[in-house]
Prior knowledge:
The protein has helices at residues 2-12, 26-37, 39-72, 91-117, and strands at residues 82-84, 87-89. The chain is mainly α. The longest helix has 34 residues, at 39-72.
Amino acid sequence: MIKELTRIRELLTPKPTPPSTPPKGVWNEFKDFLSKYKVMGLAVAFIMGVYLGGLVQSLVKDLLLPVIGLAMQDVDLASLQYNVEGQIFGIGNFLVALITFIIVAFVIFILVKVTKRWELQ
Protein backbone atom coordinates (compact mmCIF):
# COMPACT_ATOMS: atom_id res chain seq x y z
CA MET A 1 0.00 0.00 0.00
CA ILE A 2 2.88 2.39 0.75
CA LYS A 3 4.40 1.63 -2.65
CA GLU A 4 1.10 2.45 -4.31
CA LEU A 5 0.74 5.74 -2.37
CA THR A 6 4.31 6.70 -3.27
CA ARG A 7 3.58 5.99 -6.94
CA ILE A 8 0.39 8.09 -6.80
CA ARG A 9 2.30 10.95 -5.13
CA GLU A 10 4.91 10.85 -7.89
CA LEU A 11 2.20 10.94 -10.53
CA LEU A 12 0.45 13.89 -8.86
CA THR A 13 3.62 15.91 -8.26
CA PRO A 14 3.83 18.54 -11.00
CA LYS A 15 6.86 18.37 -13.22
CA PRO A 16 9.11 21.45 -13.21
CA THR A 17 8.53 23.68 -16.20
CA PRO A 18 11.40 23.74 -18.66
CA PRO A 19 13.32 27.02 -18.70
CA SER A 20 12.09 29.42 -21.31
CA THR A 21 14.46 29.82 -24.19
CA PRO A 22 15.20 33.28 -25.47
CA PRO A 23 13.73 34.12 -28.86
CA LYS A 24 15.86 32.93 -31.70
CA GLY A 25 16.79 34.93 -34.74
CA VAL A 26 18.32 38.35 -35.23
CA TRP A 27 14.97 40.14 -35.60
CA ASN A 28 13.60 38.73 -32.33
CA GLU A 29 16.86 39.50 -30.52
CA PHE A 30 16.71 43.05 -31.87
CA LYS A 31 13.12 43.51 -30.68
CA ASP A 32 14.12 42.12 -27.28
CA PHE A 33 17.02 44.58 -27.15
CA LEU A 34 14.74 47.51 -27.97
CA SER A 35 12.23 46.59 -25.29
CA LYS A 36 14.76 45.63 -22.63
CA TYR A 37 16.85 48.80 -22.83
CA LYS A 38 13.96 51.14 -23.74
CA VAL A 39 15.93 52.43 -26.70
CA MET A 40 13.02 54.32 -28.23
CA GLY A 41 12.45 56.29 -25.03
CA LEU A 42 16.14 57.12 -24.87
CA ALA A 43 16.14 58.25 -28.50
CA VAL A 44 13.10 60.48 -27.97
CA ALA A 45 14.67 62.00 -24.83
CA PHE A 46 17.92 62.67 -26.70
CA ILE A 47 16.17 64.34 -29.62
CA MET A 48 14.02 66.44 -27.30
CA GLY A 49 17.15 67.44 -25.37
CA VAL A 50 18.92 68.58 -28.52
CA TYR A 51 16.03 70.79 -29.56
CA LEU A 52 15.47 72.07 -26.02
CA GLY A 53 19.14 73.08 -25.93
CA GLY A 54 18.74 74.93 -29.23
CA LEU A 55 15.66 76.69 -27.90
CA VAL A 56 17.44 77.80 -24.74
CA GLN A 57 20.50 78.97 -26.71
CA SER A 58 18.23 81.07 -28.89
CA LEU A 59 16.53 82.46 -25.78
CA VAL A 60 19.88 83.50 -24.32
CA LYS A 61 21.48 84.89 -27.47
CA ASP A 62 18.43 86.54 -29.03
CA LEU A 63 16.50 87.75 -25.98
CA LEU A 64 18.58 87.86 -22.80
CA LEU A 65 21.91 89.13 -24.14
CA PRO A 66 20.32 92.17 -25.82
CA VAL A 67 18.64 93.00 -22.49
CA ILE A 68 22.01 92.68 -20.73
CA GLY A 69 23.53 94.82 -23.50
CA LEU A 70 20.92 97.52 -22.87
CA ALA A 71 21.82 97.50 -19.19
CA MET A 72 25.57 97.68 -19.88
CA GLN A 73 25.24 100.29 -22.72
CA ASP A 74 27.80 100.25 -25.50
CA VAL A 75 29.21 96.82 -24.52
CA ASP A 76 28.66 93.75 -26.70
CA LEU A 77 28.89 90.90 -24.20
CA ALA A 78 29.59 88.22 -26.83
CA SER A 79 32.64 90.07 -28.16
CA LEU A 80 34.02 91.15 -24.79
CA GLN A 81 37.81 90.70 -24.74
CA TYR A 82 40.69 91.71 -22.51
CA ASN A 83 44.24 92.23 -23.69
CA VAL A 84 46.89 91.44 -21.10
CA GLU A 85 50.52 91.80 -22.21
CA GLY A 86 49.69 90.90 -25.79
CA GLN A 87 47.48 87.95 -24.90
CA ILE A 88 43.79 88.26 -25.76
CA PHE A 89 41.32 86.75 -23.31
CA GLY A 90 37.94 86.39 -25.02
CA ILE A 91 35.70 86.05 -21.99
CA GLY A 92 32.54 87.16 -23.80
CA ASN A 93 31.88 83.77 -25.38
CA PHE A 94 32.59 82.11 -22.06
CA LEU A 95 30.05 84.33 -20.31
CA VAL A 96 27.46 83.57 -22.98
CA ALA A 97 28.10 79.83 -22.59
CA LEU A 98 27.91 80.15 -18.79
CA ILE A 99 24.58 82.00 -18.93
CA THR A 100 23.25 79.42 -21.39
CA PHE A 101 24.37 76.56 -19.13
CA ILE A 102 22.73 78.07 -16.06
CA ILE A 103 19.44 78.56 -17.91
CA VAL A 104 19.53 75.02 -19.39
CA ALA A 105 20.25 73.55 -15.94
CA PHE A 106 17.36 75.55 -14.47
CA VAL A 107 14.95 74.43 -17.23
CA ILE A 108 15.95 70.78 -16.70
CA PHE A 109 15.50 71.22 -12.93
CA ILE A 110 11.97 72.57 -13.50
CA LEU A 111 11.14 69.72 -15.91
CA VAL A 112 12.31 67.09 -13.41
CA LYS A 113 10.24 68.70 -10.64
CA VAL A 114 7.14 68.77 -12.87
CA THR A 115 7.53 65.16 -13.98
CA LYS A 116 7.98 64.02 -10.36
CA ARG A 117 4.90 65.98 -9.33
CA TRP A 118 2.87 64.47 -12.19
CA GLU A 119 4.43 61.06 -11.47
CA LEU A 120 5.65 60.65 -15.05
CA GLN A 121 9.00 59.16 -14.13
